[in-house]
Batch of 4 targets.
Target 1
Amino acid sequence: MSRRIFLKTLGLAGVSSLGNFTPPPPSDRAFWLTHLDQLAGPVLKNLAKDTLKATMPVEGKTKDRPQYTHLEAFGRLLAGIGPWLELSDISDSAEKKLNDTYFSLTQNALANASNPQAKDFLNFNKGAQPVVDAAFLAHGLIRAPRLWESLPEGTKTNVVNALRSSREIRPFYNNWLLFSAMIEAFFVKYGYEYDKMRLDYALRQHENWYKGDGVYGDGPAFHWDYYNSYVIQPFLYDILTVVAPKETVYKPMLEDVTKRAVRYAAIQERLIAPDGTFPVIGRSICYRAGAFQHLATMALANKLPKDVKPSQVRPALTAVIRKTTENKDTFDANGWLRIGLYGAQPALGEGYISTGSLYLCATALLPLGLPATDPFWAEPAAEWTAQKVWKGVDLPADHAL
């Protein structure tokens, strides 16, 4: 499938021998689709067959991770590929076939994940961790209304019950408040009863934790890490985008959150070095390209800073994805992600990191939800900020919000 996507994108479908002809590199979109296929295949094919728990390895440092890792993998993957699953009008036949395949697999995966009688019925309420990945699952469904509406009523009921069951979990006093809020935002979007206090408390606490220049604390304290991108800013923006039209009291907050989000997107774009590397700092660094979920979110929403073009964000994110997956030890022999940032580096993983956690890297793929005709994909690649500066281009100075 990956090779067919490459050839189709290059206009070379059906060519059996290229002889001495050297084709140009595949397009960025083809590369991203190949990466999506590589990430999604093992997770969705097994969960759709009710064999995820039997098949998926559980790498990690603590014995409790098998309770959580399967929902981690599914929820985080869906949060990343949801916008692409939402696409209904795909002109490229190879991509359309891939999309149709994963759309169907995700429908079946949701059925098994939420069915108490299934072998792969996932843990939504035992321990603390499930509220995190129930939220990522809810986020993925918010990003893919077409998928949600396609589900049989029985599956919808099971998913809603599973998400509601996570209310038993008390989130920690930090970014975890947004996990509870995202689940309630799912209920808001699809017309179910929702808990206003879970929403309001999370949103107002993060207002209190704003530190300035587009950055929030993770709780009362500031942390040097990527949690503004892993969770805080994408969750705030998407929760408020769903809730503010129905709870108009939040419209001014959405305006403020959006201004900060645009500024943080500018910061993120500048963090990407000319070769696609980025500072290895803070916890959860094994989420790889997921460190740039926020930049990907703003690209998907067409909310990039005015001096940051989509045509420079695309190659920048492509470089990050390439760099964080080029090492031969990134995946095991059966195609599952391994703990690390560049290959297999288990010491980089905290105690809460396991195989399923790593699929947060799929959130870098959010712009695949933009059609191939969108400027993000259609415009010629442009150099991003670090490339320009480190080749001597004279650029205006950066300024705080």
Note: DSSP finds 16 helices and two strands in the chain.
Target 2
Amino acid sequence: MDHFDYRRGAMHVEQVPLAEIADAVGTPVYVYSTATLTRHVGVFRAALDKLKDPLVAFAVKANPNAAVLATLAGLGLGADVVSGGELLRALAAGIPANRIVFSGVGKTEEEMRLALDKGIYQFNLESQPEAEMLSQVALSMGRIAPVAYRINPDVDAGTHAKISTGKSENKFGIPYADAVAAYDRAAQLAGLDVQGVAVHIGSQLTDLAPLEAAFEKVGALIEVLRDHGHVIRTADLGGGLGVPYDPSQPVPPSPADYGAMVTRVTADWDVRLLFEPGRVIVGNAGALVSRVVRVKQGATQPFVIVDAAMNDLLRPSLYDAWHNIRAVKATEKRVTASVVGPVCESGDTFATNRDMEEVEPGDLVAFMTAGAYGATMANTYNSRALTPEVLVSGGKWAVVRARSPIETLIAGDSIPDWVKA
């Protein structure tokens, strides 16, 4: 559920007309709903209400906007980060360090020092060389690093290949078969407190079966590790729960279904459970609003050319992702068209042969379910400014990231003296 709906024929976000924001800020623009964020956090936490003190650590990569993170911090969420930059963003937004988990395969010494200095809750290690590096960094600082190993369970999540992370050919984690040896070695490294196990098999999962299979393997591994003398106190079950992008496709499992499965599978683990939801919290809370530049008749169908492009919303080009595209001003007229942006790439296509509401030049359209992996993946290709972001709460709204003038982008370059000469 989200808080984008039509009132008197015009799409609103909560109590604010999208057209009001578009006219004031310009397009394209990302718009987020506080009420939707609040609802989604409540639903997810309610799904885990039978668990003892779970840590819900929002996946910052899904949406790192400071206002969004501050909203989630106020709702009690922690953070799952994958870079030093994300760690600093989370801290700046008010998320306490003792609710932050650091994941990712490429942590540098500098990032490890930063995280140790701030006192984060857990490092999710992905290789033995990483464990050895963290040990040395921790020793040099006189600190103890709380760690878990991320295990690759070789479970196919059944999702898009580019967002699958739990198969043996993926770069993430250590092979399940090597886990005991890895823990035995980590236990011998000074400066490390080996406290947990972590797993994450992919994103946008639409079936609980792969998750349950992975969790069953984690449970079995915890027993084996304890038999080998390791004290396992935490289990990070990752994120990945899908959201409904395409209404013609089956609805993904609900957080309640997910929570019931987790509660059942982990009943005798005797650990603190950690979760890394991202998309399921922010996906439906955001929309990308764009204006139609023109409609061009092609050989077989019209092209609706909008002022948003692949640099603003990369998912369709990168993942062949599907986003519902709605007219901001309601109409009953329908058309089959392709929706494309102005970037000089054939991949700058949002939809092909889409049955959609008929729109004309100057009309506004909204790309729905764009709150996750939208603005965070935006770039300046074709020398286009980064997309601004707006947060709405009831009848109030504010720009929470302004559109930087293109002159600012140009000013970031420098011309060497020999070129000027």
Note: The chain has a mean pLDDT of 93.
Target 3
Amino acid sequence: MVGMSDDSTRGWISGGGRDTTQLDLTSGGLVPSPRDNRQVSGPAPVVTHDTVQVDRSVFSSDRVPSPAIATGDRAPDPLADTGSVDVSGVRLRPVEHHLDEILGAVPQPDPIELAVLDAQGLLCAELVTSQRSLPAFDQAGLDGYAVRAADIATATVEQPVDLAVVGETAAGDGEPASITAGLAQKVAVGAMLPAGADVVVPAAWTDQGAARVQVFAALAPGSYVRRVGDDVATGDVAVEVGTPIGPAQISLLAAVGRERVAVRPRPRITVLCAGNELVDVGAVAGPGQQVDVNSYALAAAARDAGAEAYRAGIMPNDRRRMVELLEGQMLRSDVVLVAGTFANGGHDLLQEALDELGGLTFTQVAMHPGPVHAFGKLGPDAVPVICVPGEPVAALVAFEVFVRPAIRLMLGKRQLFRRTVQAVSAQQLLSPLGYRQYLHGQVMRHPDGGYVVEPIGDGDQAMLARMARANCLIVVDEDVTEVSAGGLVTVMPMLLGG
């Protein structure tokens, strides 16, 4: 079976007619290797990425044209001395460098206090200690009979011990009770244990008598009894800082009397889209126009990653109104995410509006689809603004590579990146030299073990239907132009909420 790696920038595929079985991606069947346990702490983590070995015997880059990229003379080259690569005279910024800049700049929101139910899915930001003992009184661990262990020490099926039943206690009864030698009290699970009893005999191990009961087994003292503080004692830590708050933690918080708890809040992400060609979903697209899908898709992706996302929609086709819109959204946001098709070779209205607010540097990142990106901090509060390509498929790939890890960092998550598997490519893959390529695909578990992956389509940026059928991304490294059928590639399962 092939192994796994933790490169957050990898992907997947599927095809018909092959002797494979569909991988159940909801069953948690992906088993991480030690490298998947990379933890991140602090505001500016150092991000490292693994690579995967593939068949590199053929590097025929002339067979695979480089993707179209925007060029221009905006600002001094920000990539000098940063390990950038040069492809056909175009300076490209490595994916890791762009990611590191974003991760090093996103804010760490201050903890907030929420009602425990509203805290579900967030990380605890305080050390919660119990102000009470759990349980608060000695109680029965199941339905049965409270007795003294010494009285049933010789009990067997052949020679049961016979005891007198002196009463019955239900859960919630607060009246104290007690027993002495030779007596038993019928109790329900959670009921107060009568004084003198040190064992609860399960009802199934008795004849379930009402006035007298026969016990068919001996039990050690303390069996099926919950003592005061067995679960949590007064002063014990109930929930630690950094613990994800799920149903079990909410149960414990309620049990120790906490109605509210301090948590790392969901980062506020505003999604904007720029482009004269865009119309809203409810409008009829005319010649040359396209429906705005990015604001919906990116807002949904942000919510899936754990953010509180605001879909601000299409930006106005006016520089002054653009500036006002951006200024307003920066007041309410921890991060502003803008998708757009940026001008090739000169300024456009969006770039002019951004320049008025301080300016972003547009760079060409060594990835396909969508190499043109921008990042910077704008406004008096230095709000991070991330610009991703306007092609919907490229926009969602860029979100996976750059924005999702940033959201998880702001949430306080230790695992920033999706876990990945290495899979056998079911067919030949071609990739442009110098670009890390992300292909949508489907991954399957092979009956003989391991995973098989097949691409969906040919990597065209505009194929929304193909993307909707994918369950993974296939990632081909920058220095690989061809992966032979049967070669290993890294794939990133696209699990919802994963």
Note: Residues 1-82 have pLDDT under 50 and may be disordered.
Target 4
Amino acid sequence: MKSSTKPLDNIRIFDLSSVQMRTFHVTWLTFFMCFFGWFGLAPLMPTIREDLGLSKSQVGNTMIAAVSATIIARLLIGRLCDTWGPRKTYTLLLLICSVPVFLVGLSHSYQTFLLFRFAIGIIGASFVVTQYHTSVMFAPNIKGTANAVAGGWGNLGGGITNMLMPVVFAAIVAAGYTNSQAWRLAMILPGSLLLISAFLYYKFTKDTPEGNFEDIKRVAQKKDKPNTKEVLTDWRVWALTIAYSICFGMEITFDNVAALHFVDNFGIDQKNAGLIAGLFGFLNIFARALGGIFADKVGRKKGLTGKGWLLAAFIVIEGIGLVLFANSGSIGFAIISMLFFALFLKMANGATYALTPFLNSKNVGLVAGVVGAGGNIGGMAMGFLFKSENITYGEAFQYIGLLAIVAGLVVAFTKFDLKNQFNGAPQEKIKVEGELAV
């Protein structure tokens, strides 16, 4: 039976025969692997801090470096997805980023380690390709859910990385290597995973349900060329950028600081700290998907603005949970409050990208890039709080929680159901063919 060349209107989890579902599975799995490269060093930071003699401020700078490179990279990758295609874009990104992941073990000073963490941070742009590619493969009625599931299962890599990398490190030490050697050798695993993912992505995915960009006639793109100004002058895009800065920004920040926070504040060892931090990321197996599913259901009844209200509620509750976590007096309460704010944070991630593909049908990649970059801008800004010698990690979490409540109110007062000024149709009702610009 010939595979459909139209976007799917449902998710067939066990279907590997259609290009849409094959691309879906390879996309989320590749994003999952990217987290091993991006945050593979984070759960090993207690050891690296001691090995390189890093101060709190220097550790903070490396965290900022890990997310700041992604800001510009996400904007560029978003535009490349619109023009060059997600398949070749992702493959090249994976190949380039495997190099600093393999070579970070050569670092023997703060300066070289900082440089490598900055270079590795480019891999964070992989998220934009993931969301763009999923948006292309699925119809509007299921797009938010598909984006959320793919993003959530990919983000799950952040949790597994926190859990697995300390185990890999311990196994290398048990084999007779020193701690200094072990953390360096451990990074061979993430580098190898990126190379394997590059091969899988190039071989088993297509740019669109109809085929790759170079093999098909992109009629709609010829009529409606991408327009950067349309994106940058749309307040709705910036409202979602603010939202994503506080939810995904907190996610990548927590992936960076969690192990250190639990080691320093509660006196547990690196391995157990990694396991606890891993629980935070493990919620992505369902939580981000829930955000997308709920948003799609609300959207069918209340439109895009209804989705916005749901997103606002998630962010406000995330903020409340962060304040509770910041004031944890015991490891037990810290874990419970962490899971509470993590649940709503990840549902907010999913709800954000249930809105993003509908804001501008001709610039799906660029909108995804701008909003995605917002997540890293948030992560970078939070990094300055965690590097400060005058602010404790607990105080930093509390400040971010209060900012989240404010951000939620901003989103709540944004009207997302605007007429599309370029074609006169409500964005939620645009035909699939036009929306995908293929």
Note: Residues 19-436 form a domain with the Growth Hormone; Chain: A; fold (CATH 1.20.1250.20).
